[in-house]
Amino acid sequence: MNRIGKLALVAGILAIALAVPIAAAHVIFVYQALVTVKPVTPIVFLKGPDYGAAGLSLSNRTSPQVRLTIPITNSSETYVYQALEVKVNAGSPTLYVDSCYYSGPALTSVELIVYPTKGSPSSPTGRITITPGASCKSSGTVSLAAGRTYYIDFLVEPTLPIPHGAGQGILTIYFGLSNQTPTVTVPTPTP
Fold it and tell me: CB 3.0–4.6 Å: which of 90, 98, 115, 141 could bond 124 by disulfide?
């Protein structure tokens, strides 16, 4: 092999040796990430600080159910303070009573007074009135805001006089929501 052939061979080997790191520098790594995101329920019902006064039980299902054991006395009204708490996680839902069932001594009405936990029942966000009877009826809606928590107080007005020996009243309420945001946007991670 002559001198020019050797130089060409060395130059070729040198070119290949320099090309390998340059080519390796352009290797793109592809990796797959697994992200677990907890679904966000737009609204969650919780027992309020004074839930025991109404014997309140609840379930957070597709149709949230609240069951109250209403203390009925011969007074003109019974006020149950902070029996239920409502936490709004997303959207701006409107709360209403979808349906209700009542058994017990006759009641004139049950008013649900909704107000922020940092607020006062004297300036409520809204009210829903239930008229218990053979066919339980309700009227009124309350607009709620995301990121806020509300209390629901119950103002019970019995039909007087209460018969002697009358038992407690049991009111079951199924809440409904409208105008709720069906999805929650998760921001794209920045590289």
Answer: 115
Q: Which domain does 67 fall in, by range?
A: 43-178
Spatial neighbors of 61 by CB under 8 A, at least 6 apart, are none
Rounded to whole angstroms, how far apart are CA atoms 110 and 152? 12
Task: Kindly list the distances between the CA atom of residue 55 and the CA atoms of 1, 3, 43, 83, 178, in Å, as whole numbers in the listed order.
Answer: 102, 102, 22, 9, 28
- Within a domain: 52: yes
Q: Which of 97, 85, 90, 94 is closest to 42 using CA atoms? A: 90
Residue 115 is part of a domain; what is its CATH number?
2.60.120
Q: What is the pLDDT of residue 163?
A: 75
Give the per-residue pLDDT at 184: 45
| pLDDT at residue 185 in the model | 46
Question: Is residue 36 assigned to a domain?
Answer: no
68 three-class SS: strand
Low-confidence residues of the chain: pLDDT under 70: 1, 3, 7-12, 14-40, 61-64, 71, 180-191
Cα separation, 65 vs 171, whole angstroms: 10
CA torsion angle 67 71 74 79 (round to 10): -80
Domain-embedded: residue 148: yes
185 occurs within a structural domain: no
Distances (CA, A) of 153 to 13, 21, 146, 168, 180: 86, 73, 20, 18, 23
DSSP code for 10: H
